[in-house]
Amino acid sequence: MREHGGNLDLAQQRFGGRAEDWIDLSTGINRLAYPVGEVSARAWSALPSRAEIDALHQAARHAYRTSAPIVALGGAQAAIQLLPQLAPRGRASILAPTYNEYAGVLSAAGWDVQEVSELDAMAGADLAIVVNPNNPDGRCLAPSDLLALLPRVGRLVVDESFADAVPQLSLASQADRQGLLILRSFGKFFGLAGLRLGFALGNAADVAKLAAASGPWPVSGAAIAIGSRALRDDAWAAATSARLARDCVRLDEMAREQGWALVGGTSLFRLYETRDALAAQEKLARGQIWSRVFARNPTWLRLGLPGSEAEWSRLAEVLAR
Question: Structure pTM?
Fold first, then answer.
């Protein structure tokens, strides 16, 4: 497996403790998850119907403010795995640094993968990949700049896995344009990553290819039931976005007291420049708080946002040591 957050088993191997003893801040997953509530027995026992899947798609269109064709998949990662099937192999350009699965999946499928640092350098690519907001540095690109790139590449994929709290950045309303594909994650903002739910939005032909490749039951009945409910809960989404914005300020202030400089981030994680990220990670791990470091950037430390007040208090205590 490529380097990722969420590798709590590694933290346990190195520093001990049970999984439930740890506060896992190594991911960008909301630690105050959407309240799942009751899930019907049918959702667990019956194969999902076409009508139920269609209802999930409509809920996603509501949440993402679009009327574009859409397909539900087992997380945004499932869509990434299917990208090589959309077109014959060619040159893929990835705006980097970013989520490392894109380069790995495309390279394994025989694509010529190039990582670039500027949008203009992507011109002429058969496939252009942009994560917006970006992981791990939170870089945000204006929708108008991405639309200007669209006619200069064969296909533009925009990963909006961290865009729920910043809907003004989303191109979902434009997703039916030829050559544009939008990926969305459900589990991060709603704090239900284990549900494995995400979406791809695009023109009818691309969405049909992805739907065919994903099979007749790409998501579970439980994912359909919970996702359909959560994606229409506008009040919860608004309150959560406001809380996350406040919590980002709170975490940044705590980091400044450690002498860490903010590199960037999103509403679900923050990236800091430290003197020694491994030393900072170990300090946190001694208090059973797990964080994310990067082999290519030995001074970068990424932290998700604590959830409960007990988690915030424990983080403050560990940092004060």
Answer: 0.96
